[in-house]
Every structure is written in C-alpha cells, then in structure tokens.
Amino acid sequence: MKKSLILLGLSLALFSCNNDKGTAASGFKTAYVDTSKLSKEYEAFKDLETQSKVKQEEMGRGLSAKEQQLRLDAASFQNEARAKGEQWAQVKMQELQERQRNLGIEQETIIKQLQEEFGAKNDSAVSKMKKYIKDYGKKNGYDYIYGSGDVATSIIYAKDGYDLTDEVLKGLNSEYKSSAPAKPAVAPAAEAEKK
User: Fold this and answer.
1) Which domain holds residue 76?
2) Is residue 30 part of a domain?
3) Does residue 54 belong to any structural domain of this protein?
4) Count of CB atoms within 10 A of residue 163's CB?
5) Which of the residues 19, 36, 92, 163 has an alpha carbon 20 to 30 A from that of 154?
6) Is 52 in contact with 118 (CB distance < 8 Å)?
7) What is the pLDDT of residue 188?
8) pTM for the structure as a whole
9) What is the tally of structural domains in the chain?
10) Using CA atoms in the order 62, 68, 69, 70, what is the torsion angle rounded to 10 degrees?
C-alpha cells in the first residue's frame, strides 16, 4: 500500500513537472514576452525611429544654418567693435544675444513638436502591441502572459519554453507589414548616414 501511494505521488510529481508550454500544475497556462526585444525588433518601432531621424534632420537644417551664421557674426563682431565704437558694440551685442535666445526657443519648439508627434505614434504602436499580445493570449488559451525586459521586469526567472517573444514578434511584424502603407522613401542624407 505504501509503495503504491509513493508511486502515485511520484507519478503526479513527474506529471506536474512535465507541463507543456506554460501549463502549470495549478491549471494555469502562462508564458512571458521579452518586451525589450519587442521594442528593438518590432518593425513599427524601427520605422518610427527612422521617420523621426529623417524629420529631425529636415527640421534641423534651417536651424543649423542660422546657428552657423550667428557664430560667423559673433566672430566678426570682435573686429567690428574696435572699429565702430562702444555704443555700436552694445547695440550689436544685444542683437546677437536676442538671436541666440530666438535660436534656443526655435530649437525647443522643434524638439517639442517631434516629441508630440512621435510620442503619439509610439503610444499607438505600444497599444497595438499590447492588444496583439492580449488577443494572442486569448486565442491560444493563456491565463497569464508576463512581460520581461530591461526596464520594468515582472519576471525574475522562467524556463525558455515559456518564452513567446519570437512568436509574438513574428505575428506583430506580419500584422504591421500587412496593414502599414508603403514605406516612404528615405532621404538621401539619411541613406548616406547609414553607410
């Protein structure tokens, strides 16, 4: 009798340890997704990063030219101040300081504009990713899908068999490619920078 109870207990222990793809002994089906990998390899995030860089370069060109001109004017100011006198120098110095303040304001405006535009687009991509994972979990019968990553980790350890990251990433990218409009052409400056 003791032997049969021990064998029954041992077989139950082996059965519960041999769960498939996240089915825990308690009956819950769990898995996790590496969110840092998703954020690096999800095509929507890659496209947003490329678009952001291109737009930042485009918006920064005019600002760059103004900054260069201000530097040239400031350098020539030294020589002209001696020739034209102190009163002229004070007026010119105020003008240069005002231009510098305006450039700072323009730069802050560009940064804010980029953050607003691409922050909203990034939030939208994150929402789509979360919805996809939620739908994936429902469709495949998961009770819980946890997130792991570099920043906010909710998993300390999990067997590799519980990792759904590659499956989710493949599905996300497939869904993104099928719903995304054709990629815009990359600006020549951005293309040259890649090389």
Assistant:
1) 23-194
2) yes
3) yes
4) 19
5) 19
6) yes
7) 47
8) 0.63
9) 1
10) 110
